[in-house]
Amino acid sequence: MSEHESPIKTPQQLVVAVVLAFVVPIVIIVLLTVYVGSRPKVGAGSDAFSPEATAQRIAPIGRVATQPEAPTAGAAVAGGAAVVRTGAQVYAAACAACHAAGALSAPKFGDAGAWKPRLAQGLDGLYQSAMKGKGSMPAQGGGRYSDVEVRKATVHLANSGGASFKE
Fold first, then answer.
1. 127: which of 30, 44, 80, 159 lies 20 to 30 Å off by Cα?
2. How many C-beta atoms surround the C-beta of residue 142 within 10 A?
């Protein structure tokens, strides 16, 4: 065979060589993808698209209640029934932080002099201040305690300052 001769001598050999040049790599690629795709998926992230994982990712983080549910918002539950806390309990849990020490200009618990001008607005006025907030005091309406419990705490706090309101 001379230096410039090719191993392909006929047109049929040329056609076979061209077809094999295309077919053999394609067959190798298909076999590799089948081999890699048939192996079990293990490791981090392999269950990321499972129905459970998807449901967990798109689950709501909160819920807005537009109507009070039974038991009412803020009421403690004991034995399946809503329990309304006393004014003293609500005062100790929510109000005492400021009213016990007079923090942020809050009238102190039991200080008749500080409560006298506030008592002039009556129980309804004091209750509205507690529900809507006043000055540095945050609004209690719609919070952790029911409206009845906030009213009881208002009566308890005002009565300590000289009022004689009834719960």
1. 80
2. 13
- Crossing angle, helix 122-132 and helix 147-160, to 10 degrees? 120
| Angle 111-74-163 from CA coordinates, rounded to 5° | 25
- Which amino acid does the sequence have at 91? Y
Contact criterion met (CB below 8 Å) for 162 and 112 = yes
As given in the structure block, the two tokens for residue 83 are 């329990």
Q: Which residue has the tokens 């618990």?
A: 109
Q: Which helix or strand (DSSP H or E) is residue 78 part of? A: strand 76-78
Structure tokens at 3: 């230096």
Gyration radius of the chain over CA positions: 39
- Measure the CA–CA gap between 115 and 111, rounded to whole angstroms: 6
How many residues in the chain? 167
- Round to whole Å and give the CA distance between 165 and 41: 71
d(CA 94, CA 55): 38
Q: Using 50, 70 and 90 to split pLDDT, how confident is the model at 45?
A: low
Q: Within 10 A of 112 (CB to CB), how many other CB atoms are there?
A: 13
Give the pair of three-digit tokens for residue 88: 């003293």
- Find out whether 104 and 112 touch, Cβ atoms under 8 Å: no
